[in-house]
Write a structure and sequence with these properties.
Strand content of chain A: 15-25%
Largest sheet of chain A: 7 strands, mixed
Structural class of chain A: alpha/beta
Oligomer: homotetramer
CATH topology of chain A: Rossmann fold
Order of helices and strands of chain A: EHEHEEHEHEHEH
Number of domains of chain A: 1
Number of strands of chain A: 7
Number of helices of chain A: 6
Helix content of chain A: 25-40%
Distance between the termini of chain A: 19 Å
CATH superfamily of chain A: Flavodoxin domain
CATH architecture of chain A: 3-Layer(aba) Sandwich
Chain lengths: 190, 190, 190, 190
Amino acid sequence: MANLLIVYASDYGSTKKAAEAVAAGVATVNGCTATIREAEKATLDDLSAADGLILGSPTHMGSMDWRVKKFIDTVTAAAWMKGIFIGRAGGVFMTGGGYGGSGGGCELTMLAMLNDLAELGALIVPLPNSTPGYAKAGLQWGPYGRSHAEDGKPIGLSDDKLEVFRHHGANIARAAALLKGARIFQTQGG
Amino acid sequence: MANLLIVYASDYGSTKKAAEAVAAGVATVNGCTATIREAEKATLDDLSAADGLILGSPTHMGSMDWRVKKFIDTVTAAAWMKGIFIGRAGGVFMTGGGYGGSGGGCELTMLAMLNDLAELGALIVPLPNSTPGYAKAGLQWGPYGRSHAEDGKPIGLSDDKLEVFRHHGANIARAAALLKGARIFQTQGG
Amino acid sequence: MANLLIVYASDYGSTKKAAEAVAAGVATVNGCTATIREAEKATLDDLSAADGLILGSPTHMGSMDWRVKKFIDTVTAAAWMKGIFIGRAGGVFMTGGGYGGSGGGCELTMLAMLNDLAELGALIVPLPNSTPGYAKAGLQWGPYGRSHAEDGKPIGLSDDKLEVFRHHGANIARAAALLKGARIFQTQGG
Amino acid sequence: MANLLIVYASDYGSTKKAAEAVAAGVATVNGCTATIREAEKATLDDLSAADGLILGSPTHMGSMDWRVKKFIDTVTAAAWMKGIFIGRAGGVFMTGGGYGGSGGGCELTMLAMLNDLAELGALIVPLPNSTPGYAKAGLQWGPYGRSHAEDGKPIGLSDDKLEVFRHHGANIARAAALLKGARIFQTQGG
């Protein structure tokens, strides 16, 4: 009963693959559908029609891909002005380099995307550490899939890392369906 | 139908006053009750019995009061080990200095408290900018009330700033009530 | 003896005005010069020639303007690959809305820009709270100037807020001059 | 010619081991000495006597150990009131769990400690990715050493991860020595 909009940017195809895994997870939830959009093609109509927004990006110098940021500045800012996304659901996912073993700036990148969701008034769905597949690609703010070798070469997102992305999609879909029709915020019309 | 646990630390009484405003907001929601605990007295039993957790702190050198951190390290970490808070609701609020006009580190402080809620697997309730009273004490992550003058002296939390704290409490209570009985995460028992 | 590169984006002219104040501060330091570039026009040659980088942006939905992010992704990432900025100086500044009284996401925005400087290996120059003018537009990570009224309308950056921007420029210039010729990191050539 | 104060908390000894590696790095720099203090024993006199401050902590629920936070709230806040640390050097390091492969909240934890250093007016020394040993335990904000197995059991900090901690100590020592006697901020006495 909920439609989830997945907006992403991808350089080598890993974040695209991650977005498809998130969408596959959404589709496992009864009555839920996913719309995947490249960041530069997503529109305000896409966002208005969605019950939940899931943002995905590679890490670039410790923050999100500029194309995702452009979507945020131009499309989500318009939604924020109108208050149309208040009380819906949101979440994030990422891919990135493996160099250093610490996520390479993934947490601050996720928080910047989550800041947009908070500004929109969306409830934020985290990723519990008991989610199947968490040990392969989990962080409390959302899935983070290593797509580069230690030497920095892109190696793609291996299939064992996709499981937690699928669960994250399903989790957010269930949250969006639950919130649809509910009225959490006084500012929402009744 | 939901019980909200409000855990806070306070130096001069402003965060305590803010906690009471949040609790008053919770009580406006049909069937919801609030339990207020000083950080050093809150227990795992308090947390286990709660459908939502609301953390409040003053800003100290750009992060939360150490007493709130001690509660997180000792009490919430035990809840995290057992996964008992997954799928419940969470939110944050703060008070702090007015020096500089930019919140003095409130955002990073709120994010550190939200990191605990994300680790616990709680859905995070933001503060929409159309909430009544937002202009006096609002930030997208939760209410932030200035309780010091520009010269750094504590002046308390004026009443006009409390409105947005009350609404934040009511919002989180509604979210906690909605989530109670729902099953967002696969890791939650059925 | 040091050349500072100031890269910014501006919507209504406030961040441009802030950039000019930062540059004026740089020029007060003996032998230091400032080069101001709009984010979309700054090049790798500009960056290579600089002893320090100062990034400025308005806040958009809790993170930096996408044009600054595009500069980071395309220009600074190339500098990072070559390690050419290691051991130089860096800092940030911002402008933004006044709604809510808490900086509206300025801290996380500054941190995303600082993440780029950290990745580049630049020493980060903060803003001490005893800096003249801090009370008007100060945050520990750098100056933050309110350029909108409480109702969201752009009102420009008033002159009383520019003082702290000038000092921040001078501080970073002194740091860049000191670091020039020094060798802090083992990875720097000797 | 510089004295570095290293303040840490440790649960199983890994952060203590990391602190000792940082101190060993400091000692490789001509004329520099390191003082190691457990967070609960560090004093304002220790801080006043130091030319640089290096904070280390394990990750607990996505933020620093409460004992480090208590040091920040009680000792560094007193230094901040007096402005005695303005223009000195600072840096951070961490240890933490390996679960999830993304650092488990290490970035936000480091930023909370860096927020204290920024408030103090210390120049922040990052960790360039070309530092020897970075691939084993590096993050742009400082070293992060995994000290737990994927199943959460503490396994200690293996020796191959210590190299980057030593270099970070040496880097901060060189920065502290350079800054000693320099005058970056107008607010510093001359």
